[in-house]
């Protein structure tokens, strides 16, 4: 969908009494703040067209040309860019200057280090228990997002700038969720911003429950406390809505649905299949992976490789889940190359966990 950044505004006088043009004419409607096609290229500007154009312009409408037809327009109309106010150089907003600088820094980094491989970096991070490289790569990419796209994208950039630096539990989930979404061919900045903000706020509802619940491994919680823990998705969703923070409805669904499971065994609404947004499944899968490896589910830490081997073979390990939708599941189990010959230690860990 074209936005205001795809056009430049001209005055009717710039048409210079010509009747046909090798470029398209668009009209900006100030009431709806949208651009719409007015006249296709090489179509005659009839008297009816001309009268209607005058009618639109008198009521605050504007005449516009696509920026990718800039050269065609200037040549055909024998006009210099300096004569078009909307084409004159404008001072860039400080945030846009910062974004352009971040794009250059990212390009320099990639030129020096080469292409980023999530599988390679994830395997190394698990071996060393250090996710700084993954977090930094995610941060570097997110800081190149356009802050003018939507409030959620702007918030995602702000969160990355102010919080996505240290290697901690939350930042691991945010960075890996973001990169796993890209591995699932989700590249739209709006969707990626939703998963960034959703991952940051997914467990905010736990702030509304007793501290002991968040600090106790899930499987060790008594039934009453476990039920209260499961309410954190509803509490988080309610808290976000009550705060009136300007984020997308899809982002709010991630907060509400990240514990829903594809076969209908999740909570809070026992949704299944396509009823669950794939971004919710990604945050749910990545959160579960780090919660399980850190002991937040069973009380005992597990190596990420042992967990992924168990997931790939769908071997029983108490509290381990597999039901994140086939696309997300396949992406998760390839985070580490488990096709290599498993060591004696891997088998020992799996037996202990089972």
Automatic annotation (TrEMBL):
Q: Which InterPro entries match?
A: Cyclic_di-GMP/3'3'-cGAMP_PDE (IPR052020), HD/PDEase_dom (IPR003607), HD_GYP_dom (IPR037522)
Q: Name one Pfam family in it.
A: HD_5
Q: PANTHER family in the record, alphabetically?
A: CYCLIC DI-GMP PHOSPHODIESTERASE TM_0186-RELATED, LIPOPROTEIN
Q: What is this protein called?
A: Uncharacterized protein
Originating organism:
Bacteriovorax stolpii
């Amino acid at each position: 969908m074209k936005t205001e950044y795809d056009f430049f505004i001209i005055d009717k006088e710039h048409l210079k009494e010509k009747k046909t043009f090798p470029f398209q004419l668009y009209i900006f409607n100030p009431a709806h703040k949208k651009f719409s096609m007015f006249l296709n290229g090489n179509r005659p500007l009839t008297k009816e067209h001309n009268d209607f154009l005058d009618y639109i312009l008198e009521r605050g409408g504007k005449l516009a040309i696509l920026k990718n037809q800039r050269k065609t327009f200037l040549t055909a109309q024998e006009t210099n860019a300096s004569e078009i106010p909307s084409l004159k150089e404008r001072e860039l907003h400080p945030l846009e200057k910062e974004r352009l600088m971040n794009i250059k820094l990212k390009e320099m980094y990639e030129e020096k280090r080469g292409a980023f491989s999530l599988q390679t970096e994830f395997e190394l991070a698990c071996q060393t228990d250090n996710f700084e490289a993954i977090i930094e790569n995610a941060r570097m990419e997110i800081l190149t997002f356009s802050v003018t796209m939507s409030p959620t994208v702007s918030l995602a950039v702000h969160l990355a700038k102010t919080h996505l630096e240290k290697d901690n539990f939350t930042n691991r989930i945010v960075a890996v969720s973001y990169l796993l979404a890209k591995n699932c061919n989700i590249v739209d900045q709006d969707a990626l911003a939703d998963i960034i903000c959703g991952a940051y706020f997914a467990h905010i509802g736990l702030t509304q429950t007793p501290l002991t619940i968040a600090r106790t491994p899930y499987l060790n919680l008594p039934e009453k406390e476990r039920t209260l823990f499961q309410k954190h998705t509803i509490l988080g969703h309610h808290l976000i809505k009550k705060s009136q923070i300007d984020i997308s409805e899809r982002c709010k669904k991630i907060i509400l649905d990240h514990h829903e499971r594809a076969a209908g065994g999740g909570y809070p609404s026992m949704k299944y299949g396509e009823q669950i947004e794939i971004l919710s499944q990604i945050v749910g899968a990545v959160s579960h992976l780090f919660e399980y490896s850190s002991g937040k589910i069973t009380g005992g830490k597990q190596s990420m490789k042992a967990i992924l081997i168990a997931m790939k073979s769908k071997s029983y390990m108490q509290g381990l889940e597999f039901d994140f939708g086939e696309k997300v599941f396949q992406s998760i189990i390839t985070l580490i190359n488990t096709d290599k010959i498993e060591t004696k230690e891997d088998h020992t860990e799996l037996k202990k966990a089972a």
